[in-house]
Amino acid sequence: MISFLTLASHYMGMINVKSKLKNQVYTVMAFVGNWYLLYIGIRFLQNGRYLRGLLLLAIFLVFLYFSIMNIYYFFTTKKAPFDISPILEKYVGGAPEEIREKEEFRRRLAQVERQSRQASSSPAGMFDQRMLLPAQVESTGEQKRNIEQIAMLMKNAGILFEDYGGRSDEQIKEQLQPGQTEVYAIGDEGIQFPFADIKMINGQPTIYAGLNQMEELPVGVITKVGAASFEAAKQENHLYLADVLLSGGEKKMIGRSGIITENENFFIKVNIAYKRRNTSLHEV
Length: 284
Known about the structure:
Layout: H1 2-14, H2 19-46, H3 50-75, H4 85-92, H5 97-117, E1 132-138, H6 141-156, H7 169-175, E2 182-184, E3 191-192, E4 195-201, E5 204-210, E6 217-225, E7 228-229, H8 230-236, E8 237-255, E9 258-276
Antiparallel strand pairs: 1-6, 1-9, 2-8, 3-8, 4-5, 5-6, 6-7, 8-9
Helix pairs in contact: 1-2, 2-3
């Protein structure tokens, strides 16, 4: 019986079939062959060799349990009761090939979906990157709550993906830049708000954002453009709102014992496009 199973296993290794079908065949072979262990164990008990007989019966029960787990996994879509596979996987290491294939497919699908939904440029249009300056933004408590609210709306609308670009922990480690210790689930650069605008409210350049103009909410006030105050920068340049990006949220960090996951509040990043005035306001 053992020789037959070994021979069948060798032949299966020579045939190029899908891993799921191969695992189904192996499961059937193991389930059938396991009953031979029961027969041998009973024969040992009948012949008075109780230690060997009981040992084989114990092995039979263990193999029977895992055979039933495999039947659930490879032949049905139901979750097996009393499944200890995740615990064993944690200590033994590695996921089954079928699971790895599904995870890889899921990551690639997520990347394609992310790219298709976030492929649009900034709502303000495209600017020469050399003409952009980062802006310093301050948000009140209410404006910070508005940012969290908009982030939740973007999640519900399916345009905010907290999946690290479909990357696994191993891929994140490999792609970390020198000196980089953390990555955000939504992307290190952040993602564009569907709608963003700048309005002068009580003399302050206030950023509004939302899913659309009808649902816009104030999310912060620009205090600096580059190294200059907003007022000083505006005196010397024509200023345009180029990017309003949502950043923050869940992130992974490199710790001493491996990758750890933390959460922080969402925040916004703003880039301002500038164009020199022909004549400064001081000379007007």
